[in-house]
């Protein structure tokens, strides 16, 4: 447990032989940077066929180029589907684009997201709506559009990048934390509806991981950027380690997994299994706002 960087179930599965992803069609949103980008490389290494989404086309082109180098595959095996996830009305056309190109989808990875830092009391409601549109309704609507195809095929796998913030509230990011908790509500329900349909749901909860997320983090006012740039010395998980663990969780169709360095992982275990003692005693003694913020920033 001392050296664990994921929940023990996931670490156990990570020791087992890898699942085969060759020629599986995997659609990743938020693939232009950070966790989604490295997930694309992890799947390319395993010869999966990829549809990659994000907003920034130039970055997506670079990710595609790198995937082709890794997989040594034909250009047609990596399809770019750039779109703004808040434009719900174009989701159906995006699904059609992937299906027209590859014929089917095996795995949808709902990964696109933005984070936030601000005091609860100061946040404009527009910021809550903005975060929910991207982090929740974007994922929910896109999944609904893909679900018909999964039901027709009688198989499919929906993956959701939540966060450890989806399991426990932390100071200064209530809209983000609210949005990640909401994902658990939506996708737990979906899982329970899909039990007899051979459609799996995997909720991935990463802790701090190197990515662009804090650069683009929003604040209490819409349009304002928190703009905290990560340092290489920060105590965060390497993006590649996170993506490799995610591939295991996806391969073994785990319902939920936590991917997080210590001591945060241990804190989440305490919060999960000793909820009252954690909130009434441990938080007050050891985890004041300043300490928690430092941990989340990897400082
Ligand atoms: N890094 C962490 O510490 C951490 C921890 C827990 C959970 N997560 C979750 O991991 C996921 C990926 O984040 P990351 O850390 O890899 O951050 P990142 O480097 O900022 O990547 C975010 C990705 O989401 C895409 N995206 C953002 N807003 C979008 C929008 N409106 N429409 C379409 N795509 C959009 C971005 O596309 P463009 O760049 O093209 O705009 C980018 O590809 C998020 O859901 C985040 O909440 C991250």
From TrEMBL:
<protein>
    <recommendedName>
        <fullName>Dehydrogenase/reductase SDR family member 7</fullName>
    </recommendedName>
</protein>
<feature type="transmembrane region" description="Helical">
    <location>
        <begin position="266"/>
        <end position="287"/>
    </location>
</feature>
<dbReference type="InterPro" id="IPR036291">
    <property type="entry name" value="NAD(P)-bd_dom_sf"/>
</dbReference>
<keyword id="KW-0472">Membrane</keyword>
<keyword id="KW-0812">Transmembrane</keyword>
<keyword id="KW-0560">Oxidoreductase</keyword>
<dbReference type="InterPro" id="IPR020904">
    <property type="entry name" value="Sc_DH/Rdtase_CS"/>
</dbReference>
<keyword id="KW-1133">Transmembrane helix</keyword>
<dbReference type="InterPro" id="IPR053011">
    <property type="entry name" value="SDR_family_member_7"/>
</dbReference>
<dbReference type="InterPro" id="IPR002347">
    <property type="entry name" value="SDR_fam"/>
</dbReference>
<comment type="similarity">
    <text>Belongs to the short-chain dehydrogenases/reductases (SDR) family.</text>
</comment>
<dbReference type="Pfam" id="PF00106">
    <property type="entry name" value="adh_short"/>
</dbReference>
<dbReference type="GO" id="GO:0016491">
    <property type="term" value="F:oxidoreductase activity"/>
</dbReference>
